[in-house]
Predict the structure.
Amino acid sequence: MLIHTIGQELKYDGRQLSSLWAFRNYRLQGDSIICFRGPCQVELTEMVDLADVIANAPIYSESMLHFIIEHFDLDLEKTVVRQRLFISQIKEVIYKRTGRILSRQGDDLFYGNKKLSVSIATLSPVSTMIHTGLNISSRNTPVPTVSLVELGFSENEILTLGQEIAETYANEISSIKLARCKVRGVV
Amino acid sequence: MLIHTIGQELKYDGRQLSSLWAFRNYRLQGDSIICFRGPCQVELTEMVDLADVIANAPIYSESMLHFIIEHFDLDLEKTVVRQRLFISQIKEVIYKRTGRILSRQGDDLFYGNKKLSVSIATLSPVSTMIHTGLNISSRNTPVPTVSLVELGFSENEILTLGQEIAETYANEISSIKLARCKVRGVV
Amino acid sequence: MLIHTIGQELKYDGRQLSSLWAFRNYRLQGDSIICFRGPCQVELTEMVDLADVIANAPIYSESMLHFIIEHFDLDLEKTVVRQRLFISQIKEVIYKRTGRILSRQGDDLFYGNKKLSVSIATLSPVSTMIHTGLNISSRNTPVPTVSLVELGFSENEILTLGQEIAETYANEISSIKLARCKVRGVV
Amino acid sequence: MLIHTIGQELKYDGRQLSSLWAFRNYRLQGDSIICFRGPCQVELTEMVDLADVIANAPIYSESMLHFIIEHFDLDLEKTVVRQRLFISQIKEVIYKRTGRILSRQGDDLFYGNKKLSVSIATLSPVSTMIHTGLNISSRNTPVPTVSLVELGFSENEILTLGQEIAETYANEISSIKLARCKVRGVV
Amino acid sequence: MLIHTIGQELKYDGRQLSSLWAFRNYRLQGDSIICFRGPCQVELTEMVDLADVIANAPIYSESMLHFIIEHFDLDLEKTVVRQRLFISQIKEVIYKRTGRILSRQGDDLFYGNKKLSVSIATLSPVSTMIHTGLNISSRNTPVPTVSLVELGFSENEILTLGQEIAETYANEISSIKLARCKVRGVV
Amino acid sequence: MLIHTIGQELKYDGRQLSSLWAFRNYRLQGDSIICFRGPCQVELTEMVDLADVIANAPIYSESMLHFIIEHFDLDLEKTVVRQRLFISQIKEVIYKRTGRILSRQGDDLFYGNKKLSVSIATLSPVSTMIHTGLNISSRNTPVPTVSLVELGFSENEILTLGQEIAETYANEISSIKLARCKVRGVV
């Protein structure tokens, strides 16, 4: 799985969650995970989570650490399972780095009652995709949130954290492929 | 997803990891998770993890809390992802109940350097299956282990823990199915 | 499988056959079958059956009992088989209620030489979908048709019939899932 | 889809429901439906329907019209849907030939309270398979049954009926493949 | 697999690579291969190969022998394997007809350093598709090319060659389906 | 894709075509291609090609260059397409090394009327597999054969040839995966 961290800021407005975005822009050909930081503002018309659209709950954050994951298969349920595992891994990495324990509820991470993350998984015509964003700032968010800074990360550490999370995910995906290739069938 | 907790002790010798074991013995028809407690002794000839067979590492524990999961599809990679998520959930439930933080390495759980669990995922002719065992006793195990008792669970709480873990998994599987059914595709 | 009957009239113009229509409008999250009544007018530009487009055969009925089915998988052939079974079930329910025997030809139902139904199955980006319409009125249809009223249903019974058909389908889908989970493999 | 009617009697004992039975014995290479007549006696050890094994309900009939269907894919749920459609078709053919109306309950056919049929669908290592048997005799069956003879077929007509049912199924499978190839996707 | 050769010239501009093009225009319902001749000019906005888009390499040829293949499944990787095999077959047919040996590099054919072909495989909402074009003329192409005429085919033979290639592919696809239906599984 | 060449001779008797043979014996975990040389003798009871079993055509060669390929998916048709492509590649490599042109008929290679190869593709419980053998000796074969030696390879070059063929296949499989990840979908 290919990993890329984007150095400059980039606003996430939903259009990054489109097939081959990683290939078009960063020449990553194959399953990939990209991380970058930037504001997050997704209008209702761009949202793929129709539960949020119905609830009229647009997504907004002044600053987030973003991940865009693409898997070139068409099994959305499988990618939702991967997404849940990815959220678990973020929790594990943050614990390792800060000693703080987040709670996971489905594809959301909380610190106490405050939300750290947004995440969605969907299908493109040629792949399945995941977006996950972690608040770097908790100001002006539509719901009570916590930020990575409040959890103890300095601004300088954010992209390093992103890179570590991306590597952790890529390693687990590799490890999963290996685990699939070592067992005999049962009756 | 169907859940069943077996009241009496049952020895796990590997033959429980066979298709429709839940239906044959407990009338569970459909995807299911069963938990029970009992010793664990899997001879090399019964093991499905060929990496362990090659390493000549039979599985033994005087007492374990066992889970047998069956999903009626044939995508082993997907079930390995589910397995990793299941292991993450066990960690989350144990934290919630004891405040103790385990570390997960792939499909293994550790407390410090001591291993709490064994787990394997495989294919049957009609389904995919997972076995996971958590040590209730750490005596006489072939590698250094930690037990649920040492983590703070009393003997009386073991099956309740098993039931809670099973429910947590079944709830997440339901939640995953729902998450798959709320998103529009992207371009 | 989720079932919903819409009380008020709704015109079917083809746009209802789009992914997550049931979730967007009626909060049904998961595989679903919806029934409602209303006129049916699908312009050539909205038709998904290209055989009808080629034949320049737009669909029109002054009043129909409609069903919209959505299955969240991407196997169109499987959904065509489901569609054929659904058409068989409509025939079975109408016989049970009226004693009248329809003949099925693929995905069409006839009473003598007169057509009762239209039906199509297709793929959306995230699911497979079926539309089936049964004439409540046979006036002004482009081909000779028979209506549910002519088969003996009163106007008041139409939605009850729709509800019964929807339940019959949902029950069979459940029963099929169970049947898949009770057999061992053969050599 | 290949069709073959076997002229001589053949006892069905369960072992005919094995992969490539049609190819090994009758050189049918590809999806196929075979029909033949003969007694039916399946011991519990040969049964694939574990619900029947649990209920200790062996299958026995002095004389049946048998169908063995093989599809070279591995989606058992899809083949269960096909099986239900096949059972519906048998009902339709019998009505067309005798004017008698059977009732279908899942994969069973009844005439009044008497059972006409047995049927099962399962997976082989390389295909999915269906067996269906229709009683030619109703003597000595373990449950109350009706026979094709009692429904009005003479002994001489049995294989012709079988051939017609097989052709009806093969035609519908072809028609389903065509129906999958004429629709554009929707949004 | 259905085969059709179009007698009159047709310009390939990329829009022919769309689902059901063969059905809409030539009534081919099912997996198909169509061949025709005509100029080739695909603007960047119509190109599906994003590697070429990134490289700003539009496709142009004054005259080509074109093939449009459609398979009604959604496994793009499988269709890429089919595409590679198709390219191998073109090489085999040209050798048989001219004694000239082309070299294949992935989905490209070369004669010495000169390129004979362009090819791409992609997904539509309901199928997978392949376009392959073989130069009839090598004039004004953006890269050094060789043409079928330079390889020894007269203008009159071009469509016959196309027909032979199409038949060769269709025969192999049939043969592959048969090969899938003659083997028992292994342990 | 993992590649391994076995230095010592090994007799191929059919049992090597079993799941995880590469992992059990050579620690290759994942899709793999192994080559080795040795006699080939497959009794009818071990053969997976039932067409050969029916024709009573056991496989025998005093010396062959063998390839065992394993792909960890369950789509046999896809692996038959891969097999055909693999056979094409063997032809291409032999041409490059000797200038001799073989003809391919399905999964067989011929030099004139003499057969160079045997090949079969099948399913295991956890994977799909291919065996291909190329005659090193043409003595005492049940049908007229040609050998790699007669095609101009010295005994010393055989394993090098095997290694080159294996690398060519592994490279193409990688290239196919990349090709799947560079195209946008079409309408």
Q: What stands out?
A: The CA atoms of residues 44 and 56 of chain D lie 7 Å apart. The beta strands of chain D are 2-5, 32-42, 59-71, 103-105, 108-111, 114-115, 117-123, 128-135. Chain D has four helices and eight strands. The first helix of chain D runs from residue 21 to 26.
